[in-house]
Protein backbone atom coordinates (compact mmCIF):
# COMPACT_ATOMS: atom_id res chain seq x y z
CA UNK A 1 0.00 0.00 0.00
CA UNK A 2 1.35 3.45 -0.98
CA UNK A 3 1.18 5.90 1.94
CA UNK A 4 2.28 9.49 2.20
CA UNK A 5 4.51 8.67 5.17
CA UNK A 6 6.32 5.91 3.26
CA UNK A 7 6.83 8.19 0.24
CA UNK A 8 8.15 10.98 2.48
CA UNK A 9 10.60 8.62 4.16
CA UNK A 10 11.77 7.24 0.81
CA UNK A 11 12.36 10.74 -0.60
CA UNK A 12 14.21 12.16 2.41
CA UNK A 13 16.27 9.10 3.29
CA UNK A 14 17.05 7.65 -0.13
CA UNK A 15 15.96 9.51 -3.27
CA UNK A 16 17.09 13.06 -2.51
CA UNK A 17 20.43 12.15 -0.87
CA UNK A 18 21.30 9.83 -3.75
CA UNK A 19 20.30 12.42 -6.35
CA UNK A 20 22.29 15.09 -4.52
CA UNK A 21 25.40 12.90 -4.44
CA UNK A 22 25.15 12.15 -8.16
CA UNK A 23 24.54 15.75 -9.20
CA UNK A 24 27.21 17.09 -6.83
CA UNK A 25 29.75 14.67 -8.27
CA UNK A 26 28.86 15.41 -11.90
CA UNK A 27 28.63 19.18 -11.43
CA UNK A 28 31.86 19.58 -9.46
CA UNK A 29 33.65 17.42 -12.03
CA UNK A 30 32.38 19.69 -14.81
CA UNK A 31 33.16 22.94 -12.96
CA UNK A 32 36.56 21.93 -11.59
CA UNK A 33 38.09 21.98 -15.07
CA UNK A 34 37.75 25.77 -15.61
CA UNK A 35 38.72 26.34 -11.97
CA UNK A 36 41.93 24.32 -12.36
CA UNK A 37 42.77 25.96 -15.69
CA UNK A 38 42.33 29.43 -14.17
CA UNK A 39 44.54 28.39 -11.26
CA UNK A 40 47.27 27.19 -13.62
CA UNK A 41 47.05 30.46 -15.58
CA UNK A 42 47.57 32.42 -12.36
CA UNK A 43 50.81 30.53 -11.65
CA UNK A 44 52.05 30.39 -15.24
CA UNK A 45 55.63 31.77 -15.49
CA UNK A 46 55.01 33.00 -19.02
CA UNK A 47 52.21 35.30 -17.89
CA UNK A 48 54.13 36.53 -14.85
CA UNK A 49 57.29 37.20 -16.87
CA UNK A 50 55.36 38.95 -19.62
CA UNK A 51 53.80 41.34 -17.09
CA UNK A 52 57.08 41.87 -15.22
CA UNK A 53 58.79 42.76 -18.51
CA UNK A 54 56.36 45.61 -19.08
CA UNK A 55 53.67 43.99 -21.21
CA UNK A 56 55.71 44.77 -24.33
CA UNK A 57 54.54 42.25 -26.92
CA UNK A 58 50.73 42.21 -26.76
CA UNK A 59 50.43 39.54 -29.47
CA UNK A 60 52.18 37.04 -27.20
CA UNK A 61 49.62 37.31 -24.42
CA UNK A 62 46.74 37.30 -26.91
CA UNK A 63 48.07 34.09 -28.46
CA UNK A 64 48.46 32.65 -24.97
CA UNK A 65 44.87 33.48 -23.99
CA UNK A 66 43.45 32.29 -27.31
CA UNK A 67 45.40 29.03 -27.10
CA UNK A 68 43.83 28.23 -23.73
CA UNK A 69 40.36 29.18 -24.99
CA UNK A 70 40.65 26.90 -28.01
CA UNK A 71 42.24 24.03 -26.12
CA UNK A 72 39.54 23.84 -23.45
CA UNK A 73 36.64 25.27 -25.47
CA UNK A 74 35.89 28.11 -23.04
CA UNK A 75 33.64 31.02 -23.93
CA UNK A 76 36.33 33.56 -23.05
CA UNK A 77 39.77 33.93 -21.46
CA UNK A 78 41.20 37.17 -20.07
CA UNK A 79 43.86 38.99 -18.08
CA UNK A 80 43.48 42.39 -16.40
CA UNK A 81 46.76 44.11 -15.55
CA UNK A 82 47.05 45.64 -12.08
CA UNK A 83 49.79 47.97 -13.38
CA UNK A 84 48.20 49.38 -16.55
CA UNK A 85 44.53 48.49 -15.97
CA UNK A 86 44.34 47.06 -19.49
CA UNK A 87 41.75 44.30 -19.98
CA UNK A 88 43.22 41.72 -22.39
CA UNK A 89 40.87 39.20 -24.01
CA UNK A 90 41.74 36.22 -26.18
CA UNK A 91 40.85 38.26 -29.28
CA UNK A 92 42.40 41.63 -28.41
CA UNK A 93 42.50 44.49 -25.94
CA UNK A 94 39.01 45.12 -24.65
CA UNK A 95 39.41 48.27 -22.54
CA UNK A 96 41.17 49.91 -19.63
CA UNK A 97 39.27 49.26 -16.43
CA UNK A 98 38.13 52.17 -14.30
CA UNK A 99 36.58 52.38 -10.83
CA UNK A 100 34.06 54.78 -12.38
CA UNK A 101 32.74 52.14 -14.80
CA UNK A 102 29.93 49.97 -13.32
CA UNK A 103 31.09 47.04 -15.48
CA UNK A 104 34.47 47.12 -13.74
CA UNK A 105 33.28 47.11 -10.14
CA UNK A 106 33.89 43.36 -9.98
CA UNK A 107 37.64 43.88 -10.51
CA UNK A 108 38.08 46.41 -7.74
CA UNK A 109 35.86 44.51 -5.33
CA UNK A 110 37.76 41.29 -5.97
CA UNK A 111 41.26 42.77 -5.69
CA UNK A 112 40.25 44.40 -2.40
CA UNK A 113 39.19 41.06 -0.95
CA UNK A 114 41.52 38.70 0.87
CA UNK A 115 40.82 35.68 -1.32
CA UNK A 116 42.77 33.99 -4.07
CA UNK A 117 39.95 33.38 -6.49
CA UNK A 118 36.31 34.22 -7.03
CA UNK A 119 33.42 32.90 -9.12
CA UNK A 120 30.74 35.31 -10.24
CA UNK A 121 27.93 35.55 -12.75
CA UNK A 122 27.94 38.74 -14.79
CA UNK A 123 27.32 39.99 -18.30
CA UNK A 124 30.30 39.89 -20.64
CA UNK A 125 30.49 43.47 -21.90
CA UNK A 126 32.91 42.52 -24.67
CA UNK A 127 30.59 39.78 -25.98
CA UNK A 128 27.31 41.62 -26.25
CA UNK A 129 26.48 41.35 -22.53
CA UNK A 130 26.01 37.59 -22.67
CA UNK A 131 25.44 36.21 -19.19
CA UNK A 132 28.69 34.51 -18.21
CA UNK A 133 30.19 32.62 -15.28
CA UNK A 134 33.64 34.09 -14.66
CA UNK A 135 36.36 32.29 -12.69
CA UNK A 136 38.71 35.05 -11.54
CA UNK A 137 42.19 34.26 -10.18
CA UNK A 138 44.73 36.72 -8.75
CA UNK A 139 48.24 36.69 -10.23
CA UNK A 140 51.16 37.50 -7.88
CA UNK A 141 54.88 37.87 -8.52
CA UNK A 142 57.54 36.07 -6.49
CA UNK A 143 57.38 38.77 -3.82
CA UNK A 144 53.61 38.55 -3.42
CA UNK A 145 52.85 41.73 -5.35
CA UNK A 146 49.57 41.71 -7.30
CA UNK A 147 50.22 41.60 -11.05
CA UNK A 148 46.60 41.34 -12.12
CA UNK A 149 43.60 39.05 -12.46
CA UNK A 150 43.28 36.24 -14.99
CA UNK A 151 40.73 33.54 -15.66
CA UNK A 152 38.18 32.00 -17.97
CA UNK A 153 34.49 32.44 -18.66
CA UNK A 154 31.69 29.95 -19.32
CA UNK A 155 28.34 30.81 -20.80
CA UNK A 156 25.63 30.59 -18.16
CA UNK A 157 23.56 28.83 -20.81
CA UNK A 158 26.14 26.04 -20.90
CA UNK A 159 25.83 25.36 -17.17
CA UNK A 160 22.06 25.92 -17.29
CA UNK A 161 21.86 23.20 -19.93
CA UNK A 162 23.68 20.87 -17.56
CA UNK A 163 21.20 21.76 -14.81
CA UNK A 164 18.28 21.26 -17.21
CA UNK A 165 19.71 17.86 -18.15
CA UNK A 166 19.82 16.94 -14.46
CA UNK A 167 16.19 18.01 -14.15
CA UNK A 168 15.22 15.77 -17.05
CA UNK A 169 17.37 12.88 -15.86
CA UNK A 170 16.40 12.91 -12.19
CA UNK A 171 12.93 14.51 -12.46
CA UNK A 172 13.86 17.15 -9.88
CA UNK A 173 14.47 20.91 -9.96
CA UNK A 174 18.17 21.71 -9.57
CA UNK A 175 19.73 25.18 -9.16
CA UNK A 176 22.68 27.05 -7.64
CA UNK A 177 22.76 30.12 -5.38
CA UNK A 178 25.51 32.28 -3.93
CA UNK A 179 26.16 32.80 -0.21
CA UNK A 180 23.33 35.35 0.00
CA UNK A 181 20.78 33.10 -1.68
CA UNK A 182 20.80 34.83 -5.05
CA UNK A 183 20.17 32.34 -7.84
CA UNK A 184 23.29 31.98 -10.00
CA UNK A 185 22.27 29.09 -12.26
CA UNK A 186 18.76 27.80 -12.95
CA UNK A 187 17.01 25.87 -15.76
CA UNK A 188 14.84 28.98 -16.27
CA UNK A 189 16.91 32.02 -17.24
CA UNK A 190 14.42 34.48 -15.70
CA UNK A 191 15.63 33.56 -12.21
CA UNK A 192 19.39 33.98 -12.81
CA UNK A 193 20.94 36.99 -11.04
CA UNK A 194 17.43 38.43 -10.57
CA UNK A 195 15.77 36.35 -7.85
CA UNK A 196 16.83 35.39 -4.35
CA UNK A 197 15.39 32.32 -2.66
CA UNK A 198 14.64 34.56 0.33
CA UNK A 199 12.00 36.33 -1.77
CA UNK A 200 10.36 33.16 -3.07
CA UNK A 201 7.16 31.62 -1.73
CA UNK A 202 7.63 28.92 0.87
CA UNK A 203 11.39 28.56 0.66
CA UNK A 204 11.85 32.16 1.76
CA UNK A 205 10.84 31.21 5.31
CA UNK A 206 13.71 28.75 5.65
CA UNK A 207 16.37 30.63 3.66
CA UNK A 208 18.51 31.41 6.72
CA UNK A 209 18.65 27.75 7.69
CA UNK A 210 19.50 26.74 4.12
CA UNK A 211 22.37 29.24 3.98
CA UNK A 212 23.79 27.73 7.17
CA UNK A 213 24.33 24.42 5.37
CA UNK A 214 27.91 23.21 5.17
CA UNK A 215 29.63 20.57 3.06
CA UNK A 216 27.28 17.91 4.43
CA UNK A 217 23.82 17.86 2.79
CA UNK A 218 20.77 18.92 4.81
CA UNK A 219 17.11 18.17 4.12
CA UNK A 220 14.25 20.65 4.38
CA UNK A 221 10.60 20.86 3.45
CA UNK A 222 8.27 23.77 2.77
CA UNK A 223 4.88 24.60 1.24
CA UNK A 224 4.50 26.17 -2.21
CA UNK A 225 1.14 26.61 -3.92
CA UNK A 226 -0.42 24.41 -1.21
CA UNK A 227 1.95 21.58 -2.13
CA UNK A 228 4.73 20.08 -0.04
CA UNK A 229 8.21 20.43 -1.52
CA UNK A 230 11.22 18.52 -0.22
CA UNK A 231 14.62 20.18 -0.55
CA UNK A 232 18.18 19.02 -0.02
CA UNK A 233 20.99 21.59 0.12
CA UNK A 234 24.77 21.36 0.05
CA UNK A 235 27.51 23.98 0.06
CA UNK A 236 30.14 23.63 -2.67
CA UNK A 237 33.15 25.20 -1.01
CA UNK A 238 35.21 25.26 -4.22
CA UNK A 239 32.70 27.65 -5.83
CA UNK A 240 31.24 29.23 -2.68
CA UNK A 241 27.81 28.34 -4.04
CA UNK A 242 24.93 26.28 -2.70
CA UNK A 243 23.55 23.36 -4.67
CA UNK A 244 19.79 22.95 -4.15
CA UNK A 245 17.65 20.03 -5.31
CA UNK A 246 13.84 20.18 -5.01
CA UNK A 247 11.30 17.36 -5.18
CA UNK A 248 7.54 17.96 -5.34
CA UNK A 249 5.83 15.44 -3.04
CA UNK A 250 2.64 15.45 -5.09
CA UNK A 251 4.40 14.37 -8.26
CA UNK A 252 6.12 11.52 -6.45
CA UNK A 253 2.84 10.37 -4.89
CA UNK A 254 1.12 10.51 -8.27
CA UNK A 255 3.92 8.54 -9.93
CA UNK A 256 4.01 6.03 -7.06
CA UNK A 257 0.25 5.49 -7.29
CA UNK A 258 0.42 5.02 -11.05
CA UNK A 259 3.26 2.53 -10.67
CA UNK A 260 1.36 0.75 -7.89
CA UNK A 261 -1.80 0.48 -10.00
CA UNK A 262 0.28 -0.62 -13.00
CA UNK A 263 1.99 -3.28 -10.88
CA UNK A 264 -1.37 -4.53 -9.58
CA UNK A 265 -2.77 -4.62 -13.12
CA UNK A 266 0.16 -6.51 -14.60
CA UNK A 267 0.22 -8.78 -11.55
CA UNK A 268 -3.44 -9.66 -12.08
CA UNK A 269 -2.90 -10.18 -15.81
CA UNK A 270 0.10 -12.40 -15.11
CA UNK A 271 -1.86 -14.33 -12.47
CA UNK A 272 -4.75 -14.77 -14.90
CA UNK A 273 -2.47 -16.23 -17.55
CA UNK A 274 -0.72 -18.45 -15.00
CA UNK A 275 -4.11 -19.79 -13.85
CA UNK A 276 -5.23 -20.16 -17.47
CA UNK A 277 -2.08 -22.06 -18.45
CA UNK A 278 -2.30 -24.21 -15.31
CA UNK A 279 -5.94 -25.07 -15.96
CA UNK A 280 -5.13 -25.84 -19.57
CA UNK A 281 -2.31 -28.15 -18.52
CA UNK A 282 -4.54 -29.84 -15.94
CA UNK A 283 -7.32 -30.29 -18.50
CA UNK A 284 -4.91 -31.72 -21.05
CA UNK A 285 -3.47 -34.05 -18.42
CA UNK A 286 -6.99 -35.08 -17.38
CA UNK A 287 -7.93 -35.72 -20.99
CA UNK A 288 -4.81 -37.82 -21.45
CA UNK A 289 -5.64 -39.82 -18.34
CA UNK A 290 -9.20 -40.34 -19.53
CA UNK A 291 -7.95 -41.41 -22.95
CA UNK A 292 -5.46 -43.83 -21.42
CA UNK A 293 -8.21 -45.27 -19.24
CA UNK A 294 -10.29 -46.29 -22.29
CA UNK A 295 -7.55 -46.94 -24.87
CA UNK A 296 -5.43 -49.99 -25.53
CA UNK A 297 -1.83 -48.82 -25.22
CA UNK A 298 -0.43 -51.13 -27.92
CA UNK A 299 -2.95 -50.74 -30.75
CA UNK A 300 -4.53 -47.39 -29.95
CA UNK A 301 -8.07 -48.77 -30.22
CA UNK A 302 -10.59 -48.98 -27.37
CA UNK A 303 -9.78 -51.33 -24.50
CA UNK A 304 -12.01 -53.94 -22.90
CA UNK A 305 -13.28 -51.58 -20.19
CA UNK A 306 -14.36 -49.03 -22.80
CA UNK A 307 -16.12 -51.71 -24.84
CA UNK A 308 -18.00 -53.04 -21.82
CA UNK A 309 -19.26 -49.53 -21.01
CA UNK A 310 -20.33 -48.97 -24.61
CA UNK A 311 -22.02 -52.39 -24.63
CA UNK A 312 -24.04 -51.43 -21.53
CA UNK A 313 -25.15 -48.24 -23.30
CA UNK A 314 -26.27 -50.24 -26.34
CA UNK A 315 -28.25 -52.65 -24.15
CA UNK A 316 -29.94 -49.74 -22.39
CA UNK A 317 -30.74 -48.08 -25.71
CA UNK A 318 -32.17 -51.34 -27.07
CA UNK A 319 -34.41 -51.74 -24.02
CA UNK A 320 -35.97 -48.34 -24.74
CA UNK A 321 -36.04 -48.11 -28.54
CA UNK A 322 -35.48 -51.72 -29.70
CA UNK A 323 -32.70 -50.42 -31.94
CA UNK A 324 -30.68 -53.51 -32.97
CA UNK A 325 -26.93 -53.85 -32.42
CA UNK A 326 -24.34 -56.57 -32.85
CA UNK A 327 -21.05 -57.64 -31.29
CA UNK A 328 -18.42 -59.42 -33.39
CA UNK A 329 -15.72 -61.32 -31.48
CA UNK A 330 -12.56 -62.16 -33.44
CA UNK A 331 -9.41 -64.13 -32.69
CA UNK A 332 -6.09 -64.23 -34.59
CA UNK A 333 -5.36 -67.77 -35.66
CA UNK A 334 -1.70 -68.89 -35.50
CA UNK A 335 -0.69 -65.75 -33.52
CA UNK A 336 1.07 -67.77 -30.81
CA UNK A 337 3.33 -69.25 -33.46
CA UNK A 338 4.27 -65.71 -34.62
CA UNK A 339 5.32 -64.77 -31.10
CA UNK A 340 7.26 -67.99 -30.58
CA UNK A 341 9.01 -67.81 -33.95
CA UNK A 342 9.64 -64.09 -34.45
CA UNK A 343 9.45 -62.68 -30.93
CA UNK A 344 7.03 -60.40 -29.14
CA UNK A 345 8.07 -57.25 -31.04
CA UNK A 346 7.01 -58.87 -34.29
CA UNK A 347 3.79 -60.00 -32.61
CA UNK A 348 3.11 -56.44 -31.44
CA UNK A 349 3.51 -55.13 -34.99
CA UNK A 350 1.06 -57.75 -36.25
CA UNK A 351 -1.52 -56.69 -33.63
CA UNK A 352 -1.13 -53.03 -34.60
CA UNK A 353 -1.48 -53.80 -38.31
CA UNK A 354 -4.52 -56.03 -37.75
CA UNK A 355 -6.20 -53.31 -35.66
CA UNK A 356 -5.60 -50.82 -38.48
CA UNK A 357 -7.04 -53.21 -41.09
CA UNK A 358 -10.17 -53.78 -39.01
CA UNK A 359 -10.67 -49.99 -38.58
CA UNK A 360 -10.47 -49.55 -42.34
CA UNK A 361 -13.28 -52.07 -42.86
CA UNK A 362 -15.82 -50.83 -40.33
CA UNK A 363 -17.87 -47.64 -40.12
CA UNK A 364 -16.76 -44.56 -38.14
CA UNK A 365 -19.77 -45.09 -35.85
CA UNK A 366 -18.71 -48.63 -34.95
CA UNK A 367 -16.54 -49.35 -31.92
CA UNK A 368 -13.38 -51.44 -32.30
CA UNK A 369 -11.75 -52.75 -29.12
CA UNK A 370 -8.97 -55.10 -28.18
CA UNK A 371 -10.71 -57.76 -26.10
CA UNK A 372 -7.69 -59.75 -24.95
CA UNK A 373 -4.19 -60.80 -26.06
CA UNK A 374 -5.01 -61.59 -29.69
CA UNK A 375 -8.75 -61.02 -29.55
CA UNK A 376 -10.65 -58.07 -31.01
CA UNK A 377 -14.31 -57.04 -30.84
CA UNK A 378 -16.47 -54.75 -32.95
CA UNK A 379 -19.67 -53.25 -31.57
CA UNK A 380 -21.97 -51.91 -34.27
CA UNK A 381 -25.57 -51.09 -35.15
CA UNK A 382 -26.42 -53.16 -38.22
CA UNK A 383 -28.89 -55.80 -39.33
CA UNK A 384 -27.81 -59.47 -39.50
CA UNK A 385 -26.92 -59.47 -43.22
CA UNK A 386 -24.78 -56.36 -42.87
CA UNK A 387 -22.96 -57.81 -39.89
CA UNK A 388 -22.11 -61.03 -41.68
CA UNK A 389 -20.81 -59.14 -44.70
CA UNK A 390 -18.69 -56.88 -42.50
CA UNK A 391 -17.20 -59.85 -40.64
CA UNK A 392 -16.33 -61.60 -43.88
CA UNK A 393 -14.84 -58.39 -45.32
CA UNK A 394 -12.59 -58.04 -42.28
CA UNK A 395 -11.52 -61.69 -42.41
CA UNK A 396 -10.62 -61.48 -46.10
CA UNK A 397 -8.71 -58.19 -45.64
CA UNK A 398 -6.49 -59.74 -43.00
CA UNK A 399 -6.01 -62.96 -44.96
CA UNK A 400 -4.84 -60.97 -48.01
CA UNK A 401 -2.74 -58.45 -46.07
CA UNK A 402 1.05 -58.35 -46.02
CA UNK A 403 1.91 -58.75 -42.35
CA UNK A 404 5.67 -58.94 -42.78
CA UNK A 405 5.65 -62.49 -44.08
CA UNK A 406 3.80 -63.80 -41.02
CA UNK A 407 0.93 -66.14 -41.78
CA UNK A 408 -2.00 -64.99 -39.64
CA UNK A 409 -5.70 -65.59 -40.19
CA UNK A 410 -8.65 -63.99 -38.47
CA UNK A 411 -11.19 -66.33 -37.00
CA UNK A 412 -14.66 -65.00 -36.27
CA UNK A 413 -15.45 -66.49 -32.92
CA UNK A 414 -18.96 -65.28 -32.44
CA UNK A 415 -21.49 -62.73 -33.63
CA UNK A 416 -23.88 -61.76 -30.88
CA UNK A 417 -27.23 -60.21 -31.68
CA UNK A 418 -29.82 -59.02 -29.15
Automatic annotation (TrEMBL):
Gene Ontology BP annotations: cell adhesion involved in single-species biofilm formation; negative regulation of bacterial-type flagellum-dependent cell motility
Single annotated GO MF: diguanylate cyclase activity
UniProt keyword Ribonucleoprotein present: no
Record EC number: 2.7.7.65
Keywords: Cell membrane, Membrane, Transmembrane, Transmembrane helix
GO cellular component, one term: plasma membrane
Transmembrane segments: 264-282
SMART domains: GGDEF
Main location: membrane
Record-annotated GGDEF domain positions: 323-418
Entry-linked NCBIfam families: GGDEF
Name this polypeptide is given: diguanylate cyclase
Originating organism: Desulfomarina profundi
Amino acid sequence: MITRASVRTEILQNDLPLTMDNIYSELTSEMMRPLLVSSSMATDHFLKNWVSEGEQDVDKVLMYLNGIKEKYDFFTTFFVSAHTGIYYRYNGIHKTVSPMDSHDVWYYDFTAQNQEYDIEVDTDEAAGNILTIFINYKVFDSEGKLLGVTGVGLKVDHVSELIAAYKQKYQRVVYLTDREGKIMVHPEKKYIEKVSIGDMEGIGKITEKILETGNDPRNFEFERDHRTVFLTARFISSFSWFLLVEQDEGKVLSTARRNFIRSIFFGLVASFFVVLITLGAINRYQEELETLAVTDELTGVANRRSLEKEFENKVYSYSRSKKPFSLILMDLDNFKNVNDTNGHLAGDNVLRNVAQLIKENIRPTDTLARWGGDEFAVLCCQETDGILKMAERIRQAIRMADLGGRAVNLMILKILLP
